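User:
Care to share a sequence and structure tokens?

Assistant:
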Amino acid sequence: MSDLFWPGDERAGELVTGAAWLTAMARVEQAWLDALARAGVAPASAELTGLVGPAELAAVARAAEDAGNPVPALVALWRERAVGPGAPWVHRGLTSQDVIDTSLVLLLRDVVDRIRAQQRDQVGALAALAHTHRGTLLAGRTLTQHAVPTTFGLKAAGWLTGVLDAAEALDRVALPAQFGGAAGTLSAAVELARRRGHADPVAAVSGAVADATAALGLRPARPWHTTRTTFTALGDALVAGTDAWGRIATDVATLSRPEIGELAEPAVPGRGGSSTMPHKRNPVLSVLIRRAALTAPALASTLHLAAALAGDERPDGAWHTEWPTLRDLARRAVVAASHTSELLRGLEVDTARMRATARAAWPLLTAERGSVAAFAASAGLPGGETPEDDYLGVADTVVAATLARADAYLAAGR
């Protein structure tokens, strides 16, 4: 898949596409029907895989307008095309939102797995940069101006901290199934179990819910039709990622300016050129990462707005708002993660330029030290002559602590 409006979209592959969603919805319906059959609520199951294929996506999408979502049209097709006594039992006891929510969780689980792998690569690359450059002198800058000396290792450790924070936020996200029926009571499924002769129909349906949830590999949860924490938490975790990557891209774009020249993106033939200026080597990866970082927070805020307006037992419109929002946020986060990994793997660091710039600005970079010395003298503090060092304070200690955290994170994932 590619998107002319979002260069690089093909890096997300088939994640959260229409075809992937169709497959995921079929998986949810199959898991539920199988569970009903095993529980003795349905007389038999039926095979749904492949009964509705990607070639029919356009027709299903058109039919979705009549119900406001694609599930009723799909259910009609599955019941019509499935074979055997289980065919009429497709979707019995569920509601459309059960299928939509659970299938979206399946799609997002694949997104989470992809981004986690990218984040591990980024942690490794950033740890290597922080370690290699923990003594590389760099002019620290605040509010765009020279401030005090620092090291490029400390800057890389700061980038690393952001990525680790985002990775840990993503690890905390729960991925539950949604099986609640029309209004969260599963009353239709319980009634069917009663009519099928179950002495304890509630237990039979509860067992089917647990069975279907396990078959999908999701976390058990009570119905969450109007408690949308699953999607807001995931949205926030994805934005934590784009925030961290955007911060890295912003620094790289700034430090790769010709008048600074301390960093450069990986050199790739044909990348970074201009339609009219042959000398240009634009920091395209950083530009595209920043694009994602600038647009992602608004998408996450849409999820929060939808959650706040999820009224009654199932919402009208708020729930529907989530689908394209999650698709765009998820795919854009995957693309930004890929761009960031590529950027970090091949980042060019000009240590000589960093040191030369810092030494040229040394009177400004050490002005704070002079003011501290003047204050100390006026206060009668001991200390003697100002030492001839690089005035780096706790920089190396911070780098060491960040590297230890990165090592622990990588070790936990082995």
